[in-house]
Amino acid sequence: MSTAGLPMTVPAEGLPSRVRIHEVGPRDGLQNEKSVVPVEVKAEFIHRLVEAGLDTVEATSFVHPKWVPQLADAEELYGGLADLPASAGVRLPVLVPNERGLERALALGAREIAVFGSATESFARANLNRTVDEALEMFAPVVARASESGARVRGYLSMCFGDPWEGPVPAGQVVDVCRRLLDLGCDELSLGDTIGVATAGQVEELLTALNAAGVPDEVLAVHFHDTYGQALANTLTALRHGVTTVDASAGGLGGCPYARSATGNLATEDLVWMLRGLGVETGVDLDRLVATSTWMADRLGRPSPSRTVRALSPTKEQ
Amino acid sequence: MSTAGLPMTVPAEGLPSRVRIHEVGPRDGLQNEKSVVPVEVKAEFIHRLVEAGLDTVEATSFVHPKWVPQLADAEELYGGLADLPASAGVRLPVLVPNERGLERALALGAREIAVFGSATESFARANLNRTVDEALEMFAPVVARASESGARVRGYLSMCFGDPWEGPVPAGQVVDVCRRLLDLGCDELSLGDTIGVATAGQVEELLTALNAAGVPDEVLAVHFHDTYGQALANTLTALRHGVTTVDASAGGLGGCPYARSATGNLATEDLVWMLRGLGVETGVDLDRLVATSTWMADRLGRPSPSRTVRALSPTKEQ
Prior knowledge:
2 copies of one chain form a homodimer. By secondary structure, chain A is α/β, with parallel strands linked by helices. Chain A contains 12 helices and 11 strands. Chain A has helices at about 25-30, 40-50, 75-80, 100-105, 120-130, 130-150, 170-185, 200-210, 230-240, 270-275, 285-300, 305-310, and strands at about 20-25, 55, 60, 95, 110-120, 150-160, 160-165, 165-170, 190-195, 220-225, 245-250. The first copy, chain A, has a 9-stranded parallel sheet. A two-stranded antiparallel ribbon of chain A has the order 7-8. The interface between A and B is large, with 65 and 65 residues. Chains A, B: Belongs to the HMG-CoA lyase family. Chains A, B: This is Hydroxymethylglutaryl-CoA lyase.
């Protein structure tokens, strides 16, 4: 099939002229792989993503190697990205769980870090072995020290729309933790629908509640998972509301797309297809991005769950 | 994972209170299967869909068996659905390509038929071996005769947003064919994005152009394919515009979801998840629907491409 001239570009009202894509594939996507991906492959993946026009690529996480063996190569990987200069507008944020992780990242010259909190007590306990309050206490010196050193700080917030133990999560509860993360000094918040259950009305409600609490769209990013197929519709809703930063994962990497608890991230390619059709600038070269995700799928030995990658990939039909 | 209370119901402004789902799985979904599905399986599939609360289920197509061997059992299948009474609100539309097909359908008591036109010359030639004008001439006596006999007539229009040979399809061209189908006597039009390339702005533009040409939302249905992952976002856009009838396929049946030219329909389950979250009534019992699609996937020997089915299916994780 020819896709010349497709998608047809027809702008819609009420959308931003440009969207910043926060690419999470190398970190969020690969950290759940069962077999360890070689550091050379990760480095090439990140380089290719930047060459495809993604200017914000989350590179790795400085957690203790015992926690996530996939990330034991954080120093080596990050050190191999020194040729991707911040001066050219490339941003390579890294996750840090605590002060020790922060020092490791800063020592390598990281200019952008992220901490990861939870909107629910159940997930804070499961993921961080802490209460929500204790997690925020842990982040306080991390955010302060990062800010002092001039690094930009993103705060991830998990389970903003639903929780596997607690069910629905009230917007007010999310707003409260968001406010506290901003008060600590976070520059940006990423609202995560970690189990992919949100629908459009809930997205609109939370964003409106955040605005009412003095949190403007400019400091917000949305992070949707496609577990129930809702990620792109929810993203469009957030863009109509005024959000201009969207998290996505090249090829839809993340979780196992063929298992019951599929937790794949929104695929960057599906997002770029939509934004290209809407005339919203992203700076991304879709063909190069698809080629990159196809290459990565070959490395992982399974097809990409991204529908756009499957439609445009040059591999043979099955 | 528990999904008790999920998705959380939060209505959004500007949406209808109820959506009619036009279920196309048994016809549009199964007609592309390589191996013929036994007529008993098709009949059970349709019965299960009705029991799950879908009141409009497109049952089969009265095309010549030489064209589509999968549909050679149309008479036998339709005859086996006589226990699903129109008096209970069940609608079982069937496709008819010409007067001969219409007579076969009417002889079996069909009260709702559909003709299938094309917005582009290339697809009219490929699918019907006719020009757009010739196809409309062929439909004229079919629609007239169906209307005379009291049957409701749906007009399908393919390639409303893009065409594999012609690229982008201008809205004005689609509006023209829509007007002519309505002038023939069609009661409803289904706007098909046959190759799944549409994005939200284009959807909004076409619907607005149709309204301006005197075609109200009430006679329109939208029929999106998920080739580029856009189906649900486009559907939400159409609902916000005012459309209240949506075509979808149980389990996302249709085309081969794992091949390059994946042409899967919007999965009914993903649509129902969204509408449940938005508080929009559909009458569908999602658990029963997922059970039905899981059962059908077992019959076909491959997993459903619907993300919601994969998330909620009771089958073991891989």
